[in-house]
Specification:
alpha+beta, 3-stranded antiparallel beta sheet, 18% helix
């Protein structure tokens, strides 16, 4: 996994729309309309659709 980055403003809106707290998630991959996220504390991953 590459170094995860903080979400941008538009990515934060996508996180909020699926009920996630943007302060707890980092973006490690952006693929065709999907955001691959990793949790800051416990390292779990999620894939959400991008707005």
């Amino acid at each position: 996994m590459k170094n995860p980055k903080r979400p941008t403003r538009n990515q934060k809106k996508a996180l909020l729309s699926v009920g996630l707290n943007p302060a707890n998630w980092l973006v490690f991959k952006k693929v065709d309309g999907e955001l691959h996220l990793v949790h800051r504390e416990n390292g779990t991953t999620r894939v959400i659709p991008k707005i």
